[in-house]
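Long-time lurker. I teach an intro course on protein structure, and each term I like to show students one example going from raw sequence to a predicted 3D structure in token notation. This year I'd like something fresh instead of my usual example. Would anyone be willing to generate the tokens for the chain below so I can use it in lecture? Attribution to the forum is fine with me.
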Amino acid sequence: MFGSKQKTREKLAAAITEALGGASWLESVTVDDAGKALLVIRADESGADVAEHRRIEAENYAERIPGITDVRSVLTAERAPGRGHSHSHAPSPPAGGVNLTPAPRRVTKGARLSDEAMTQGAPAPAQAMRPVPGIDRILVVASAKGGVGKSTVAVNLAAAMAKAGMRVGLLDGDVYGPSIPTMLDTVEQSPATSVSKKLLPVVAHGMKTLSIGYLSDPDAPMIWRGPIVMSAITQLLNDAEWGTKDEPLDILIIDTPPGTGDAQLAIAQKVPVTAALIVTTPQEVALADVRRGAAMFAKTHVPVIGIVETMSWFEDPAGGRHYLMGEGGARKMGAALGLPVLAEIPMLQAIREAGDAGKPAALGDSPAADIFMKLARSVAIALDQMVTRPAPEIVFED
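-- Reply from a regular --
Happy to contribute to a lecture. Here you go:
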């Protein structure tokens, strides 16, 4: 039995090596009994960008080997004993092998996944996925950078829609920093279980809500890797009674984790997302991440309906506006990407106070409430128009 397992591991490792054309930059391949492969890839004088490209494409090819259940890879700068100096590019693979050396035009700044690899690794467009029972539409509120007010926008947008009479659900997908229970004053609550063993969302301010914060110790750090994060999110999404066949949710809003990592890609690729809304501040460092976030959604076939800019300005008691984070950044980025700016939200103390008190500002009667009600209307219109017109095409120039 032991010998048979060892032969299977060796056979799978050899198959991966052959699929990669025996590339000289591939230091080693190991496969365990569960079919999990580890690739050790040398990052040499060819540069970190080329090495990262090789790593991503190598994982992509290895994942398609029958019998391989998972692929991980590491980059190392050390040369294996007996190997000579590396070259700036991988040698041509033998006949039948795969040349993973990226074309020069693809690697101009940073590592990029080729269109071919992305097409092979990506699932069908979101519209072709099986819908979640009890939910008509799913909107993800995303930001490629943390600290821009994404959760504040998600909570107040959901609250404004519920205030307008819509059936709304709010899913806290930010498992590393679940803040929605605090913003809704539901920290002490937890979901019940139905007769069918499904979670019953916590109802707050007319919304059905779920968060990992309802199920975990508020002081416990969430030290989870991507697959576990996605498993938690899909459970909260699919193992809950959000709506019924006769009375489905009009919309489920998902507050996603910041960034463009495993969790974000998994949501975009495995959840039947209707559209995405990107949140940013006017400053350049945040806008650069907007471009990356929009690129991720474009690659995963998720339409982006627009941009929301937070911290747009501060207004002093005399009525003067001060653009502390920069001015007009979202408008410029929206014009470049062909996306509308659906709201510019100033720095208002009322928004912060309402969030800390667990009563979203959108529910009150104030300038802040008016802003979020207008945003809710713009989002609803944009989602309705998706039925009659194609989503805007986002163009990225090399």
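Some talking points for your students: The longest strand covers residues 36-42. The first helix runs from residue 2 to 19.
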